[in-house]
Amino acid sequence: MVVASKKVTVEEMEKNPERWERYELYQGEVIEMTYTKPRHARILSKLNFLINEWIYRKSGYGKTYTGEAGIKFGEESKYCFDLGWSDKDLDEDEIPTVSLPLMVEIISDSNPMEKMLEKVEDYLTHGAKEVWLVIPSRKLLQVYKPDGTSIFYRENDTYTPGEWIKGFELEIKELFL
Fold it and tell me: Which domain holds residue 107?
């Protein structure tokens, strides 16, 4: 839901964080976020578990960040992402201004797809190696890459990202169990 008719900046939002806690900023346009439903929360929890299991039990590396963590790009865009993974430590006290190598969004019925695709483009433009859209209603994972390609992975597929997160693979069905 669009909230403000005039453009807003990141700086304006940061001056009054309590007012803007449940909002994202898309090229200056304020969009109210809805609360997540149990299916969304369960899938996010499961993906976070699977990546952390790889990190801590299978000689993986990096850290995950969840919980509607914030990210901002310039003065016109500020988002909350569902999950991010980075092979480098982040400043724990600052909102990142570049994408993490992996950015993940779980699509809910209330997410306008046009806005989700804006986020995908912003994440890739600002350094993400991949952006994953998890689509629970279809039991799909859609993977976007910086070269402009994207591919769908179905419930019975296994996805192996590649060298940038070497050794990790994801059985898509595990997200939806």
Answer: 36-176
